[in-house]
Design a protein that fits this description.
Pfam family, one (chains A, B): Kinase-PPPase
Order of helices and strands of chain A: HHEHHEHEHEHHEHEEHHHEHE
Distance between the termini of chain A: 42 Å
Strand order of the largest sheet of chain A: 2-1-3-4
Oligomer: homodimer
GO molecular function (chains A, B): ATP binding; protein serine/threonine kinase activity
Helix content of chain A: 40-55%
CATH architecture of the largest domain in chain A: 3-Layer(aba) Sandwich
Number of strands of chain A: 9
Strand content of chain A: 5-15%
Protein name (chains A, B): Pyruvate, phosphate dikinase regulatory protein 2
Number of helices of chain A: 13
CATH topology of the largest domain in chain A: Rossmann fold
Keywords (chains A, B): Kinase, Nucleotide-binding, Pyruvate, Serine/threonine-protein kinase, Transferase
Structural class of chain A: alpha/beta
Largest interface: A-B, 186 and 184 residues
InterPro entries (chains A, B): Kinase-pyrophosphorylase (IPR005177), PPDK_reg (IPR026565)
Number of domains of chain A: 2
CATH class of the largest domain in chain A: Alpha Beta
Chain lengths: ~375, ~375
C-alpha cells in the first residue's frame, strides 16, 4: 500500500509519502479491490465504519475494539501473498510506539544498500497501545504467519515476558528494545521501574511545566518564522540566519519540539537584516551555509514545485544569483565572528539540529570535558 | 546546571527549561564561578572561545577539537562533587545521538516516582559524533570517575566492541542500544549491516524525495496554522479542529515532522468555520475535545503568560464561556459524524499524534488486522 520511497533517512523518522495512506481512495487499485472484498466478506462480523473510531465515550486509546475471534477471522482473510512481498518488521508498544519506530528507523540506516539497490522492500507495521495479552498474542501470531520479526517496547514486565515467550514459541525473531534500557537504569539508580504504561492509573498524568514550556516554544517559533516580528528576536533562545532554502523553517520547528524558542531571519540580497539581530548575544545566532551547486539544485526543485515560470526560476536558482546571495551571507557572517556558522549541505534536519544544540549547550556544563548536551531530570 | 523540571514526559523528549542552558550567563551563580575559575585555570592550554566553534573550514561535525591530553587536563579540573549530585547517565553516539536520547527518555518514564518525589536528580549527558576510539575512551573514563552509566549507539562494530570492553574494564554499567536491533534486522533480512556512520564516505548522502516531502509538509503546516488560507484545506493530509488551547498548533508541527501536511482550524464561538472544511473528506478531519476544567486551567495559565488583565482573563478562561465554547464545538462534531473526535485531556503531544496517525492509516493496510501504521522502505 505504501509506495517505494528511496532509502530511509537514518536517525530520523522517514516520512511516508503523504499520498500513500490515501491509496484506498484510488478506486483503480487492485489491492484496494482485494481489501474491499475482504472487508465486505467480513462486514457481517465487524463494524469498522468510520464513526466507530470516535473516542468520545472512551478515555485514552481509540475505541475501535473488536473481539479477538472476530479479529482472527478478519486476519485470516486479510493476509494475501502480495502483502508480504519483501520482509516485514512488526513493532509493538503499550504506548505510542514512537520509541520503537525511532530506534528501528535508525537501525534501518545500516541497510541502505540492500534496501535501495536490490529493490528489496521492508514493510514496517507499528502497533500502539497493545495493552492486553490477547491482543499481544494475536499480533505475534500474525507476525509468525507473515514471517515477520518483532520489536517491542512494553513497560509491564509480565507483558514483555509473554511477548518473548510467544515469539520464541512461534519461531518469531524478537528484540526487546526498552527492557535492557529500563533494567540498566534500575540497576544504576537502585530503584525498581514502575512497570506502568503511561495510560495506567498509577502514572502521573498532569501536564507539567516542561509540557507548557515546550508548547510555548513551538508557538513562539511558528509566529517568528521567516523574519516576522524582528523586535522579538531578543526573546529567542536560538536564532537561525541564512539565505532562502537553507532549511531554516523545518530546522526551527524541529528544535522547537525540543523546547527551545527559535527565530529565523532570512538573508535576502540587498536587504539589510533587522538591527535587532546584531543586538542579541552572538552565541545564540547560527548562520547556515550550503554548497553553491546543492543550493541551486534545491532551488530548482522548489521552483518546479511552485510551478514558477522559467524567468522566475532563473531569478531564484540562477547560478550567478545564488552565488551572489551566498557571498552576501558570507560577508555578514565574516562581520559577526561570534556567530557559529554551520554547513548544512546534504545534512538531515536532525543532524543540523544536533550540531546547533551541542554548540548551544557547549560551555554550559562543567561536569564533562567533551562537548555534550546535558539535562537534569 | 540544568534546573529541576518536574518529571520527564514519557515517550517524548522532555524539553529542557529554556532558560537553563543560559545559566552560565547569570553572574551570581556559584557554579558559574567555579566553572569560570576552572576555565581561567585552563585557559592557557585550550582555546575554547566562541570563534573556534566555526565549522566553515570543516565538513560535518563542529570543529571544536582539542587534543586528548588537553581535554584530560580540563576534565580533571572540571569535575567537582557538586556536579555529580544525583546519578549521571552518559549517552554516546557516532551520529546525532537522538536515538539514544529518545530511548533513554522513554525508559526514564518508568522512574517518575523516585525522580519526582525523592528529589533525586538524574543528569543525562548526550555525546554526539564520537567517531574515534580515543574520544570514546576518554568519555568512558570520565563516566567511570563520575560513577555514571553508559548507553551507546555506535554503528561501527569495532567501536561498539571497544565501548563494551572499556566499560567492563572500568566498572561502568553499559547498554548497547542499537546493536541488538541492528543484529536482529541483519538476521531477519539475511544481509550484513554496513557498519558505517552517517558521516562515513560509503554512506549515501543525497537528499532524497522523502526529505523534500517532509520539508514541504512542515512549510505547508506552518503557513496553514491557525485557520489561515482556508482555500488550501483540500491540500492537507490531516486537518485538526478544536477550540483555542486544545493544542492544535504543537500537534500540527509534530505530525508535520513525520511528513504529513497538516492544517488546523480554530473553532471560535459564534464564528462559522470556513465552508471548505465541510468539503474535504471527513476521514481527514480530526476534532479535538478536552475536559472543561482542564481547558479552563490551561487557559488561565495562558492568560497569565500573556499578562492579560482580569477582565480579559475572565473572557478567555471563565467557566461559563469555556463551557459554551466546548458545547459549540461538540455541536459541530455531532453534525459531522465522519470526523474522528479525540480527547486530548492530559495527553502528551506524541500520544495524540499517535492516535491520529493510527486512525488516519487505519484501513489503508490489508496485511494486518489490528490497527497499525504501516510503511514501506
Amino acid at each position: 500500500m505504501m509506495n517505494q520511497q528511496g532509502h530511509p533517512e537514518p536517525d530520523s523518522e522517514p516520512p511516508p509519502s503523504p499520498s500513500s495512506p490515501r491509496t484506498p481512495k484510488k478506486k483503480v487499485s487492485s489491492k484496494l479491490n482485494r481489501w474491499s472484498m475482504g472487508r465486505a466478506l467480513r462486514s457481517g462480523a465487524v463494524k469498522i465504519d468510520r464513526p466507530t473510531h470516535r473516542t468520545d465515550n472512551n478515555n485514552d486509546a481509540p475505541s475501535r475494539q473488536v473481539t479477538t475471534n472476530e479479529e482472527a477471522d478478519r486476519k485470516t482473510s486479510a493476509i494475501d501473498s502480495d502483502d508480504v512481498a519483501g520482509k516485514s518488521i512488526y513493532m509493538l508498544s503499550d504506548g505510542t510506539g514512537w520509541t520503537a519506530e525511532h530506534s528501528v528507523n535508525a537501525a534501518l540506516g545500516q541497510f541502505e544498500d540492500p534496501l535501495v539497490n536490490r529493490g528489496f522492500p521492508v514493510n514496517t507495521h507499528l502497533f500502539s497501545w497493545v495493552e492486553d495479552e490477547e491482543k499481544l498474542l494475536e499480533i505475534i501470531k500474525q507476525a509468525a504467519k507473515q514471517k515477520a520479526m518483532c520489536f517491542y517496547t512494553l513497560a509491564n514486565p509480565s507483558m514483555s515476558k509473554s511477548a518473548k515467550e510467544a515469539c520464541d514459541q512461534l519461531g518469531v525473531l524478537s528484540v526487546d528494545i526498552l527492557g535492557p534500557i529500563i533494567q540498566g537504569i534500575a540497576s544504576h539508580l537502585g530503584v525498581s521501574p514502575s512497570g506502568l504504561t503511561r495510560g495506567a492509573a498509577g502514572r502521573l498524568k498532569t501536564l507539567n511545566d516542561a509540557y507548557f514550556k515546550r508548547i510555548e516554544a513551538i508557538e513562539f517559533t511558528i509566529k517568528q518564522d521567516d523574519g516576522t516580528l524582528p523586535e522579538n528576536l531578543g526573546k529567542a533562545d536560538i536564532i537561525l540566519v541564512g539565505v532562502s532554502r537553507t532549511g531554516k523553517t523545518p530546522l526551527s520547528t524541529y528544535i522547537a519540539q525540543k523546547g527551545y524558542k527559535v527565530a529565523n531571519v532570512p538573508f535576502v540580497m540587498g536587504v539589510e537584516p533587522p538591527k535587532t539581530l546584531f543586538e542579541v548575544e552572538p552565541r545564540r545566532v547560527f548562520g547556515l551555509k550550503i554548497q553553491l551547486v546543492v543550493l541551486q539544485a534545491i532551488r530548482r526543485t522548489r521552483a518546479k514545485t511552485l510551478g514558477v515560470d522559467t524567468v522566475g526560476e532563473n531569478r531564484y536558482s540562477g547560478f550567478d544569483l545564488v552565488r551572489k546571495e551566498l557571498d552576501f551571507a558570507s560577508k555578514i557572517y565574516a562581520k559577526n565572528p561570534g556567530w557559529a556558522v554551520i554547513d548544512v549541505t546534504n545534512k538531515a534536519i536532525e543532524e543540523t539540529a544536533a550540531v546547533i544544540l551541542r554548540l548551544y549547550h557547549d560551555g554550559s556544563d562543567s561536569s564533562t570535558s567533551v562537548p555534550c548536551i546535558s539535562k537534569r531530570f
